[in-house]
Write the structure tokens for this entry.
Amino acid sequence: MTGHVALDRAEEATSQNLFAAALHEVHRRCDRMFCVLTVVQWAFAVVLALALSPRTWDGREPSIHVHVWLATVFGAALVAPVLVLTRSHGGAPVTRHVAAAVQMLWSALLVHLTNGRIETHFHVFGSLAFLAFYRDWRVLLTATCVMSFEHLVRGSWWPESVYGISNPEWWRFLEHAAWAVFEAIVLSNGIQQSLGEMRAAARRQASLESLRAALEERVAQRTGQLDTSREQFRALVESLRAVPFEMDLESTTLRWVGPQAGRLLETSPAHWLRPRFWDEHVHEVDRERTIQSFRACTTKGPGEAEFRFRRGDGSWATLRCLFAPAKDRPRPTVRGLLLDVTAQHRLEEDLRQAQKLESVGRLAAGVAHEINTPTQFIGDNVRFLREAFADIDRLIGAAIRLAAAPDDTERHEAVATIAGLRDDVDLAYLRAECPLALDQSLDGIERVARIVHAMRDFAQADQAEKAAVDVNRVIRSAITVCRAEWKHVAEVLQCLDATNPTAPGFAQDLGQVVLNLVVNAAQAIAAKGAGARGTIQVRSRRVAEGVEIEVEDDGAGIPESVRPRIFEQFFTTKPVGSGTGQGLALSHRIVTQKHGGELSFRSEPGAGATFTIRLPAN
């Protein structure tokens, strides 16, 4: 309450000061106006005197009329005090009262020069109106008193110069004074209203100034807080291992880059602002794709991208860029942060290799068994063919001897030998079984070749660049490699697009993803514990946006409670020691981050689950 009272008193004092200053400025302005007015009236009085009575005659001798001298000399005497006081005491009360008295004397002079013409008396009323501009009723009082006294004295001494007649009534000056007082009263009422408006305006201005002062104080406080916050933000940004930047998308030139750019990427911040910096330092394979991502954010909103960046020492770093459009710029502009994820990529690559080795280790026994089975029956068939060849060789030897026999006796002996061997070796059986043994051996060799080929596709070194991936081939190789995981619990149905769809990507990584999904599907079917074999369907199809791969099982399904965490790293629902919780997490990162696609799922408890991989066409 005390604060409000103090504030009201301060506003009142301010309003009074503002009112006094405004009124003083009105007085100074009116002083200058009357300076001009008195000079104009002086010139007018001289011209009027020259026009009405320029000369007088004493017999034949002409001379300047006394009115001319009166207008010139007395007029100068009236102008002088107003000019002097305005210059030395502008706005002071004495100046305006002197101006009021002088203005009434000007009326008297003009009335005298016109010999008391009634029309000239209106100058008095006009002068009172001009004096009202001072907004001081006391000035009107001074003017009225001077006018009344002047009329009384001059009307008694020289009535012709005032009233134009020589014998006016004695109360004639009272009539003139009454009209002047009446006008002064009317003008004083207007002056009071004007002063009231000035006080109200002063109070409003004082209130506004008080509000402005409060706002300025608040702005100053907020500015201080913003400066502090800006310094904290600058210190925070400069201490981060991230490089903030702003880029003009039309010229692909950086407008600004954080000072830590030189420290983190070994390239000076000034060098970053060069016109061709982006072309010189971003890998040519990633350059256009990254710029297109920047430009797309102006319509689609914030985004992120990864690209390879050549450091100042010539080495390559992998940068992840988080960016958003700058809507406060007239030209298309993007702002963002650059994060050096080179070490993270190495760790992720090590993790992928560890996951791949884990998969290979887990599948090694099954693959060995898959290779061992055809190898065994290939060996059995080869041994059978070796024994069959020995019997057939005996028959062939006997036939050769028969053909070379010189006489009938040896021919008869050779024929008898061949007849005996035919019954001994069971030639009909050999002719029926040997082709089957050869076919089975060839089939076994093809099976071993497929397994070896699939293992080679699965385990070969990762490619450095994206290439067109035969999706069907990747699926077949993954299913073949993990056959030992599913053959005892499920049947795998391959519903692959006959057009052999392709998508840009990394074949080894996509094979790892498909293998993880098929193995998980087999484990889900085994976990269901129904006893009967389940079904895993692997489908591929070409869609408008690219290629889709679906892995569907009729296993136990995914519980509602764990679905939000299904792609979380190290999260697993398997018993301790049965899984690391990295398969789905790694698969999600490969599809989304490395290929720019999507990995999603749908599931019903007890009715299985379907995982869908969507790979973009570009």
About this structure: Residues 466-618 form a domain with the Heat Shock Protein 90 fold (CATH 3.30.565.10).
